[in-house]
Each structure stands twice: as structure tokens, then as C-alpha cells.
């Protein structure tokens, strides 16, 4: 995937965790970052699925992993993964951040709550 109007390499991530889960007191499994605006949301396995909801409501279909060691782009329209340009740092959440997270809000039965 090449740089397009749907990818802004200069857009900084919105924070170290899912923006909506942080505001609502929720938790996430893995994190995804919007390649257009930097919004960080929780993945589709997470209870709230905020990353895809953002992609669809904002019209920003390109997501990328916000996990350490993962560097891929995903097009929500086509369901295809590919490589893409370098994005503004940080490229992932802090390495000492728990998965799932944040640790203080993850319920004991979290595995049963995944999609």
C-alpha cells in the first residue's frame, strides 16, 4: 500500500490506549491505529470494537496495528492486508503496557468476553 489521501504519515497516535475505552472505563485486547488521523481504538476481538467503528464512521478505512512487533496495514473495505509507509512515532503502545489492558480494568473472565 502506498501513501494516499487515506494515509497521513505525519498523524500522531491519539494516545497509548483505545481512546473510547479510556474515556468510558473500558478495556481492550489489541489496539489498532487509524492511518488517516492517528485515532487509536480497540480491535474487533475486543468487546467494544472501537477501531473498526471509527474507520467506518469517519470514512478512514485504513487501519494499522498498534502492537509492538507488528507492522501491517488493513483495508476495512476490502479485507486485505499489506505493507505501508512509515508513520509518526510511536508505532505501538508502550511495551510495558499489558495485553489485554489496561491491567486495572481487565475482568477475570476476559477470555470469555472476546469476539
Automatic annotation (TrEMBL):
Gene3D superfamilies: Zinc/RING finger domain, C3HC4 (zinc finger) (3.30.40.10). Residues 82-115 are annotated as: Disordered. Residues 18-78 form the UBP-type domain. Pfam families: zf-UBP. InterPro entries: Znf_RING/FYVE/PHD (IPR013083), Znf_UBP (IPR001607). Signal peptide: none annotated. This is UBP-type zinc finger domain-containing protein. It comes from Actinomycetospora termitidis. The lineage of its organism: Bacteria, Bacillati, Actinomycetota, Actinomycetes, Pseudonocardiales.
Amino acid at each position: 500500500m502506498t501513501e494516499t489521501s487515506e494515509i497521513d504519515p505525519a498523524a500522531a497516535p491519539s494516545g497509548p490506549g483505545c481512546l473510547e475505552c479510556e474515556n468510558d472505563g473500558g478495556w481492550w485486547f489489541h489496539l489498532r491505529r487509524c492511518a488517516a488521523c492517528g485515532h487509536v481504538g480497540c480491535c474487533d476481538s475486543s468487546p467494544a470494537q472501537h477501531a473498526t467503528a471509527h474507520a467506518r464512521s469517519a470514512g478512514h478505512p485504513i487501519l494499522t496495528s498498534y502492537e509492538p512487533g507488528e507492522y501491517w496495514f488493513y483495508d476495512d473495505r476490502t479485507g486485505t492486508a499489506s505493507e505501508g509507509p512509515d508513520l509518526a512515532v510511536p508505532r505501538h503502545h508502550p511495551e510495558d503496557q499489558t495485553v489485554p489492558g489496561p491491567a486495572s480494568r481487565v475482568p477475570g473472565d476476559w477470555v470469555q468476553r472476546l469476539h
